[in-house]
Structures are given as C-alpha cells and as structure tokens.
Design brief:
The protein is α/β, with parallel strands linked by helices and 380 residues long. The protein folds into two domains: 6-169 and 355-376, Glycogen Phosphorylase B (Rossmann fold), CATH 3.40.50.2000; 172-352, Glycogen Phosphorylase B (Rossmann fold), CATH 3.40.50. The chain contains 15 helices and 13 strands. It has a seven-stranded parallel beta sheet, sandwiched between helices. A six-stranded parallel beta sheet has the order 10-9-8-11-12-13, with helices on both faces. β12 (286-288), α12 (298-308) and β13 (312-314) form a beta-alpha-beta unit. α1 (19-31) crosses α15 (357-368), α6 packs across α10 (257-263) and α7 (204-212) crosses α13. The radius of gyration is 21 Å and the shape is globular.
Length: 380
C-alpha cells in the first residue's frame, strides 16, 4: 500500500478509554515504525489533555451518551449519532484505515459501526469483567475482542474471537521505580506511602472518606499520603489538608500514574478496569471502593477478581460519608499496620498483572490488518 498505514481508535471521554489504546499505539510503533494513529474521541477536555502530548490525531465527534432513564434526551442522542456516523464515513473514505479499534464508551460506537459497514477490520478493547453497553452492542460487529480477564468471556456469548490478553498499560509501567516515584512527587523515602486516587476524573465520595479519617491515618507512624483528587476537588481537599499536619502531597491529576503507583505501598482507588490493570502491573496491594452508580455495578465485578485472589480488599461506597469513613478506617488501619499482609497481597496482585498486554494486542492487530501492517513490520 502507498503511504503510511493508519490505525484508528474509536473512544474517549475518560482516561480508561484513552490510556489502554495509547499503550497499544506505543507497542505498534515499535513493530511498525511508520504507522499513523487517530482517535475518534469526544470534545471533553480530558481527551485533549491526554492526547495532546502524543502523536495521535484527535478527531472530536458530535456524539452524546445514551441516557436510558431520560427518554427526553433520545432525540438529541439520535441526531448526534447520525452526525457522528456521517463524519466517520467521510473520514474513512478519505483515509482508508487498516484497522479500527473500539476502546469502550459511547464515543466508540459510530466508528466501529461505520468501519464494519466499510469492510475495515474491527476490534474492541474490553478492560472490565462486565462489558459496557457500547461493547455489548458492538461485539457482533467486531472481528476480535481483547478482554482483561477470563471472567469477561462469558458475557460475550458465542463470539468466536474473544482473547484474554490483559488490559494494556503504558510503557512507563515497565521501568517504573519506587525512588523515581517518590522523587517526582517530593515524597520522603524513609516513609511508606498511601496513594489515594479517584482515577482521571477524581472521586468525591472517596476524597470525603479520606478527609474524614485524616487524623487516624496521620497518627500511624512511618506513613505519608499522596492524594490525587481530580480537578474539581483539589481546592477543597487542599484546604482541609492545610488545616492539619499531614506528610505527603495533594495533586489534582497526574500523567505519571506509573510513578505514583511505584511510590505506593498501599493504594486506595476505584475499580475501573484500566486502574486495576495498572495496580496489578506493578503488584501493589489495594483497597477498592467501586463506583456505586453504574446500573450493572461493573466495578464491583472488577474488584471481586482481585479480592477473590487475595490481591485487594473491597469497601462498599454507600455514598454516606460517615459510613464510608468508618468502613475505610477499619480496613486501612489494619493494612497499614500489617506489613506481612500487604506483602502477600502485593504478591497476588503481581501474579494477576499483565505488563505484556499491549504487545500481545499489537501483534493481534497486525494480523487483523490483513497484511497491511505485517508487510511494514520492523525487522529490528
């Protein structure tokens, strides 16, 4: 084929829909040096923030999420869906991508549907145990589905090409070190670190629970805190932090999650699929507080994968800050004072980790491209 081959990722709107495909893009670049990438994403600020530093073109789509419980929004969703499909159709006709990969979420739909219609090979990345609505809808239109865990396969029925690959993590997770992580965030290398993160958009109920027990956490000798609050909560959390004597740091967001996790001796987090892939890639023990408002409760199913294997403890997010604080206090005080238990949990997390997922998926995409990428594979 003439010109550099183009791989298109369809999806965006959250870090969980952007970071895994970026990891695949890096792995593909090592194998096919002249490959090009584009993201059919959203107009949310997070898409621009994450993709601006990459070599991937962002193409925002006029697409909206389908709110099943709000029928008055259906006309707007349908109009946006039609407009997005037309944009994808024109873009594919002009650029001739060799593969289109759906990364989950409402923004993945138009691109995968139009790719299938145009005869372009398609694939899905599925980090969660329970597929989201988009991936369930698109499964029959995908030539291949890359799932993180064995438990996900049952949700895709008789699909002939579900591959258990793990969820891709970015290249920096390969060489992340505790010392580099501590240095990046200005942390004390003589202390153990509790990392609290609500992922790319933050988690208010998690932040509230931690603030409610700050005095308990700071009373445990030899520990420091690293809080990643999300942009909307940074000022509030920082003010509460400043009113106490707390060792550690507060940041609204970081593009250096590998460093943050490498610095951590214990992690408190949501249970999104990509978050758990990163935690297990570095073998960190965790306390998981799954997001409670998804209809399918898929983060609870994700958390159970780690909990049943002894890699994590789960705390239910009851949305009541007092109840959450009491539950979180019990679990954290126990773990922060039991080095042997944390070590066992870390070992189990490491067994679950798949640092090679991006490379495995990249190789599958090369095969899926019907030779267009294989012909240009680097011989280095």
């Amino acid at each position: 084929m003439s010109g550099a081959p183009l791989v298109v990722f369809a999806g965006g709107g959250t870090g969980g829909h952007l970071f895994p495909p970026l990891a695949v893009a890096s792995a593909l670049r090592l194998r096919v040096p002249d490959v090009r990438f584009a993201f059919l994403g959203t107009d949310r600020a997070i898409d621009r923030r994450i993709l601006d530093g990459s070599d991937c073109q962002l193409i925002p789509q006029p697409v909206q999420p389908l709110r099943a419980r709000s029928p008055w929004t259906y006309p707007g969703f349908l109009a946006a869906w039609i407009a997005a499909r037309r944009r994808c159709r024109s873009y594919f006709a002009a650029t001739q991508p060799v593969v289109v990969v759906g990364t989950g979420g409402f923004a993945s739909g138009p691109g995968v549907v139009e790719a299938r219609r145009a005869g372009i090979p398609t694939a899905l990345i599925n980090p969660d145990v329970i597929p989201g609505r988009a991936n369930r809808y698109l499964a029959s239109r995908a030539d291949m589905i890359f799932a993180q865990w064995d438990e996900a396969a049952a949700y895709f029925g008789n699909h002939p090409a579900v591959k258990i690959t793990g969820c891709p993590v970015r290249p920096e997770f390969q060489g992340a070190s505790r010392q580099a992580g501590l240095s990046r965030f200005g942390l004390d290398d003589r202390r153990k670190t509790l990392l609290v993160t609500g992922a790319s958009q933050g988690a208010r109920s998690l932040n509230n629970a931690v603030l409610a027990i700050l005095d308990d956490l700071t009373s445990i000798d030899g520990w420091q805190l690293l809080l990643i609050t999300g942009a909307t909560d940074q000022d509030r959390v920082s003010r509460a932090w400043a009113s106490r004597v707390v060792v550690g740091a507060v940041v609204p967001f970081t593009e250096h999650m590998a460093d943050a996790l490498a610095a951590a001796d214990l992690v408190v987090a949501r249970a999104g699929g990509s978050t758990l892939a990163e935690i297990t890639a570095l073998g960190r023990p965790s306390v998981l507080m799954p997001y409670p408002h998804h209809r399918d409760r898929h983060q609870e199913a994700n958390a159970r994968v780690l909990e049943t294997r002894g890699a994590a403890k789960t705390v239910e997010d009851k949305t009541d800050s007092r109840e959450n604080a009491a539950s979180l206090r019990r679990v954290l005080v126990h773990l922060m004072t039991d080095d042997a238990l944390r070590t066992r949990m870390a070992e189990e997390a490491r067994r679950l980790g798949r640092k090679d997922a991006a490379g495995v998926i990249a190789s599958e995409i090369i095969d899926l491209s019907r030779g267009a990428l294989r012909a240009r594979t680097s011989r280095v």
